[in-house]
Amino acid sequence: MAKHEDTETFRKRLLEVATALIEEGGLDALSLREVARRAGVSHQTPYHHFGDRQAILAAIAAQGFDELGARIGGVTEASSARGTAQLLAAGKAYVAFALERPAHFRLMFRPEHVDLRHHPEALAAGQRAHAALEAVVRACVEDKTFRRADQGDAVTLTWALAHGLASLLLDGPLGLTAQTPEAREITADRALRLFRKLIEA
Amino acid sequence: MAKHEDTETFRKRLLEVATALIEEGGLDALSLREVARRAGVSHQTPYHHFGDRQAILAAIAAQGFDELGARIGGVTEASSARGTAQLLAAGKAYVAFALERPAHFRLMFRPEHVDLRHHPEALAAGQRAHAALEAVVRACVEDKTFRRADQGDAVTLTWALAHGLASLLLDGPLGLTAQTPEAREITADRALRLFRKLIEA
DNA sequence: CCCCCGAAGTAGACAGTGTCAAGGATGGCC
DNA sequence: GGCCATCCTTGACACTGTCTACTTCGGGGG
Question: Which structural domain range is residue A95 located in?
Fold first, then answer.
């Protein structure tokens, strides 16, 4: 049992090394061989633990979905905010996650690296994160004049907006315009506030 | 001169082969060597024409930005639509482009494959596309009750929404839910229409 | 006690890749 | 004719993911 724990923490360490590598040099700077080198083991050991390259990436993606879900879920518990303020907070949480964990975020939406259909664990984590977002949006929108049929669309709309902001800031031209973390946060904040204003009207 | 044209069309052919490869097997299924093989030339010829791997990808991305800009620009010329209808059309054009040219779209927003800062041609094409979108949004929004300061945010907001929809449908869970092209178009359409409704209010 | 077996880790090989370096053709220009 | 730039080829190198086979070792049943 103690042994099992050791291998478990070893897996975790491999994941950390891999994450660090991605954050340093981008997604294609990650090689299992380099991970092995940094972990001080043979080039084949990571393969032994994870099966193949996709599996280790999928594990990182699953971590990411878990954290994203937790951040969004945390919004509803922070009782200070209510109504559209929660919606705003959820959007900000989404963007903040992407900017603070770029390696995770990218992996979560790069099917050529991680095909979620082949990694049910990561897929399930993704669905939990989505459910968290959906809860926030529905809670905020159900008492408004939204027709019931529009509520699902409101979830999609909010999600797409947050995801688009995150993507454009991280990998798109928006990130070239706003280079510092503060500038990026401001850009996201302004767009999200405008969105809130539109919803309240 | 005739010779120069030949090399020009040859470059184009290489780009087509590369694009086809990406659309078949994903981004990492593209290798310059495979491109060379399919074009019936030596493994080094593409390198000779484009410099390195990034350059050929940047050329594809530039093509993509050009087409995207043209599609968005086409919206303002189609005189049938006015006001928020134009905005809706631009959003649909953005999503349609992503779904019909997935290889191009992905490349345009994957800095680990193409760093736009190192490829001014692609960067300029991207700015033109952005300008086209900005024109549509501003034209639609300037006569509303938007304060001037909010207009820039409205551009960001619209862009992020379209981009998020496209990304989620192409590479995210939304694409797993809506698998057929029709279903995806419907999903995007519903979200965009809700957005229009919010703006009109 | 010994043996054996499964799990963890190692080592070597293979095909494939991007890239570098050098050489061969070829056609226009002085 | 001689020359040179351009296009293209060939050969090599280091690196990658993956496959296969080999060692090592700790714990449970004969």
Answer: 53-200
Our measurement of CA B49 to C1' D3, in angstroms, reads 24
Q: What is the pLDDT of residues A64-87, one digit of tens each?
A: 999 999 999 999 887 666 788 999
Helix axes B53-77, B32-39, angle to 10 degrees: 80
Whether chain A has a CB inside 8 Å of the CB on B62: the answer is no
Is the CB of A168 less than 8 angstroms away from the CB of B159?
A: yes
Task: Determine the distance between B12 (CA) and D22 (C1') in angstroms.
Answer: 51
Is A171 within 8 Å of chain B by CB? Answer: yes
Half-sphere exposure of B153 (CA within 13 A, CB side): 19
Distance in Å from C16's C1' to B31's CA comes to 10
Q: Is the pLDDT of residue A2 over 60?
A: no
Is there a contact between B161 and A157 if contact means CB atoms under 8 Å apart?
yes
- 3-class DSSP assignment, residue A11: helix
* Chain A residues near residue B163 by CB distance under 8 angstroms: 164, 167-168, 172
| Alpha-carbon distances, residue A185 vs A90, B143, B183 (angstroms) | 14, 29, 34
Q: Are residues B134 and B154 located together in one domain of the fold?
A: yes
- Considering CB atoms only, which of A28, A110, A160 is closest to B165? A160
Sign of CA dihedral B95, B130, B105, A183: negative
Quote the minimal CA–CA distance from A80 to chain B in Å.
Answer: 26
pTM reported for the whole predicted model: 0.92
Same domain? For B20 and B43 the reply is yes
- Does A139 lie in the same domain as A87? yes
Distance CA B46, CA B33 (A): 8
* pLDDT recorded at residue B31: 94
User: pLDDT (tens digit, 9 = 90+) per residue, B40-95?
Assistant: 999 999 999 999 999 999 999 999 999 999 999 999 887 666 788 999 999 999 99
Q: Which of the residues B140, B163, B187 would you substitute to probe the A interface, choosing the one with the greatest number of A C-beta atoms within 10 Å?
A: B163
CA distance B21 to B15: 10
Among all chains, which residue has been given the structure tokens 């049910």? Answer: A120
We report the CATH number of the domain holding residue B90 as 1.10.357.10
